[in-house]
Amino acid sequence: AAKLKGRNNYCIYEQEMNQANEEALLIENHLRKAIDNNELELFFQPKMDLSTRQINGMEALLRWNSPMFGNIPPDKFIPIAEDTGLIIKIDNWVIERACEQNKEWNSSWYSSPLRVAVNISPLHFRLPNFHNVIENVLEKTGLDPNLLEIEITENSFIDHIEECIECLNKLRNMGITVAIDDFGKGYSSLNYLRKFPIHSLKIDRSFIHEVAKNREDIAIVKAITYLAHELNLKVVAEGIETREVIEVLEEIGCDEIQGYYVSRPLPKKEFEAIYRRLPYQLL
Ligand code: C2E
Ligand code: MG
Ligand code: MG
Ligand code: MG
């Protein structure tokens, strides 16, 4: 009986695998055409300086409105894009759109300029010519390099320490800011923090979410903040959903915050309504 059951379970597992593969394949086929069909769009989520309460930048977040699947979240299609290599084309589209957009905003409104952040897939960051990609986009769009930030996750560094340092140095020399995204979530190694020319740590929202209620989370956020400041890095907290969390973070000394409580990611037009009124305090 045990043997039979084992086999049945295996069959169910195999069926589910096949279904998942078929779905991924279907998504891949549509994603391939998404750029050319104009189905991709950037949303912008403001970042706020905690001490002045002013918006000092925004993160560009990708949205895909597919005629086939509707709005499909990045957590669903980005992994598929990574598995198939499509991510390079997509990331390039994002970088170029974000720079172009920020250039336009900076030329149209006489407010203090904002920095735009883009997420870069580890696969992309590890390409030997990654810094050339950035260089070309900056040249093409005319955006001031100081107004571009890239967000990379810790798994971008696995096995490639020396190459990463070299690439980060080139980016720094160009004037670009680099943040470590989802900090603390993966298999972090503190080793690279000593050597890497980066600017900020973005604490993963799983530590922020309940920081107002949870002693362990407070301890972790405090420790990361202390570490970052000793290393001359800024600390950004993502996923702020309540005022209580803001108060705790303020006490801990966090530099910047981002989250639904400040603002959701917004389509271009809605973000512009904020941008036009800078310096602007959302809270
Ligand atoms: P991320 O870079 O860590 O982005 C933050 C995610 O948290 C975004 O989800 C954002 O909408 C969401 N978020 C912001 N504030 C809150 C909050 O207060 N509460 C909660 N629960 N969530 C909040 P989104 O836009 O669905 O993106 C998910 C992930 O997909 C991103 O995580 C990033 O890793 C990836 N991604 C998004 N756009 C791009 C892109 O253009 N290129 C690449 N390579 N990856 C992207
Ligand atoms: Mg990010
Ligand atoms: Mg993140
Ligand atoms: Mg993420």
From TrEMBL:
Domain EAL: 24-279
Origin superkingdom: Bacteria
Annotated protein name in UniProt: EAL domain-containing protein
